[in-house]
# Entry
Amino acid sequence: MSTVHEGAVAAHGADQQTAGNAPAQHSIHGGGMRRQLPEMIVGLCLIAAPFVLPYLGMSPDLLTRILIWGLFGLGFDLLFGYTGLLSFGQAAFYGTGGFVTAYLLTAGLVPNMLVALLIGTAVASVAGLVIGYLTLRRTGIYFAMSTLAFGEMFYFLQNSSFKEYTGGENGIAGVPPPQLSLGFVDIHISSGWPMYWFVAFFFFIGYLIARRIVRSPFGAVLKAIRGNPKRAMALGHSIQSYKLTVFVVAAAYGGLAGGLLGIFQSYMPPDAFSLDTSAQLVIQTVMGGAGTLLGPLLGATIWLYLYEGLQRIGELGPYWKLILGIVFVVLVTVFRHGVAGAMLDFVRARRGRLPADIDADASAKVSSELSIVPPLATSRPGAPVLEARGIGKQYGGLKAVSDVNFSLREGELHGVIGPNGAGKSTFFAMLAGELPTTTGKVYFRGQEITGIGVTAVCQLGMSKSYQINQLFEHLTVRQNVMIPVLARNRGKFRNDMLKGLHSDALDEQVNAAIALVGLSSHADTIVSEMAYGEKRRLEIGLALATGANVLLFDEPLAGLGPEERVLVVGLLKSIRRGRSMVIVEHDMDAMFELAERITVLYEGCKLAEGTPDEIRRDSSVQAAYLGGMDDHEPA
Amino acid sequence: MPSMSLFLSQLFNGLATGLLLALISTGLTIIYGTLGVINFAHGALFVVGAYAGYTVYGITDSFVLAIAGGAAMSLAVGLIIERGLMRQYYSRPPEDQILVTFGIGIILVEIVRSIYGGVSLSVDVPAWGQGVAHIGSLIYPLYRLQALGIAAATLLLLYFILYRTSLGLIVRAGIEDAEMVNALGINVKRTFLLVFGIGAMAAGYAGMVDAPIVTLLPDMGHRVLVDSFVVVVIGGVGSFPGAIIGGIIAGVILSLTSIVDPAYSHVMLFVVMALVLILRPQGLMGQEGRE
# Structure
């Protein structure tokens, strides 16, 4: 208990000390040069490539092709590597963008190449919106299967309904070479190196945008969705909107890459739509390293270079795909993060014990207390904050909870206890808006919230911590805590993919929440590397960081050793001011120490309610816990 | 206006295609239901079965042996895949499982291509299946009718195995709750091996049954994979009745739209899948909450 409190006091001290020189500190962290280093390196590599890579036998055409795949892969990597959505239907957007652009240019409808590319990209994005809406209704394997199937649908459409526009099996030939009019001079871009520069320009822009997306608040939420979609939802993010948006972004990248393909080859092939195209993209991204932005480019280099190389070795030519398949299976089995991931791991290992994920932009200062969502003005003073009226839940023939009335007063700490199987978890899930009720209603400050879903409940200012830790295991503590703070600052969805992630206000809140649960010294530790007790505190910290002033704790002490237990009980006491809390707990001693009122559930019904002393003396409660109640329970 | 006999013969076609699709999808669905793995190499196993059957047919001149050979080959390949690779993947995320089975599929198809070449091959209809059948006023190719019967009989056999034997009980229990089955002390490892083998065999078996109706190409597995995915998305993944209903629906849609315009038959199939995803995302027979 004392540790936590001291932490909070220290935080206050730091506030006064650092308040004066905050801007200075920020300029150190925000050093533009270092932050833009990857962009500069990629830019330099694109410039240097034509002077170096030809010595390795790479032709300008090969390099251009690699860049087109790399651009296509940037979008796919945002979808798969960052958000965890494995789509097997990206060819649909590559083909759509390509054919629309090629058709507009060859039919002479849009003479301006850039406008044609833009329209192609836009149409591909609209296709992404429709397909994304349908396929994102399910996750995991369903998503992979249905994207694959819809990808095939586009292949069939190209060959049937749109045959007269797309040329069916012949594709569209004679796409005019690119031409840029700058008003005073027309630049004709011929094949070879000029084409490389032309495509490299688009790739670089695409890369800059993808970098910004990854480093934006939007990008932070994407990574959280990949790590633990359910918790991201419970922390107040409408993950469906994020998924759909990133799906559309990936489709746009695909559409632009497809458009460039037609212009580059002066021919748009129908197999752009084929399953092989989607598969090649997936394989390249995984081989190169998903979740690294440059992974797909690296994968495309390996695939295309190997393909050309094997063609030159006479006997091996026909076996190129077999060899690639074997390489792919070995890579998936052994190097889980692809070539780029393996390289990053190697560099990190060389650097020694430096934590891998220090966020250089985040300031570590704690300059303010964690702010709480201001309670909505209640129309009736003294009215309950959270109220359940006769709620019940029935699963088939089983009544898990029946007809429970419950109310939480403002500022109260209310305990819920009961033997195993009493229906505590079900009751709690209904209170939290996670589960719809079979009967009865739940009200939050007078507003009905029965089954409205965790995201909406969280945005109203109520949050739950889970019995089994629900953390973002592959992120650092700081990145974890950022997720609820972002939901509070930005609402359940905001499309701010080009904004910077850090602001003083955000960092302050994140640091305050970390300090509150006593994890400041671990702020840059990856969660999966932490001890159980620390994770348990972070679990509570996530709920706190939402700023919710009504908190539901599901067995916060579960599995803790004696020392950690003292720490968490202290933490729960210290956060009471300004908050109302409900705690479900097995630990009776802790409950009698903490709670002002206690509700006892037994066999799905409310058995008793009262102050700890009343509950201690209640004979029916004693009987329930001693395994009594024999009179209406057959032996 | 399409004639009644055309409609009827297309309906038969649809049933034949549908039951074959159902058979293939059953393999996919029992592997998923028990092991939690969606086998992206399923189309490739269909190809392996068809080509192995082609070879056996060439040597023995017996179509029955050819079907047995195709099934045995895909069973063997399935067992090798499970033992050699998949076993390490059960604890890894679904994305990794999808990727590795997809990679295995590529390897299998490329091995087939390197042995048989990329040109299309055709399998003759067996002697007992040649000619036409007269059903009332309808004249219909005999073998297609027989393929329909073979697929139906096999599905019945699978139904019997799944619903009337102890292995089937374990498989169905595994679909409900694999962890619990494990906890009950059943040799899950051996069951997994067996289920993966049977699932693979269903694909290979169907491959040879289908072989006289289609032309063999190493790349034909793609279509099979896509179609069986559509079937399980419509029917509900992991559900045996769902695979059968989904298969029949898909087959009938494919053949009936062909009457109007063959180019649209597959497009129509995807439209139906989209409708299922909108109205009943878990599939017609799928359970809510299963991902």
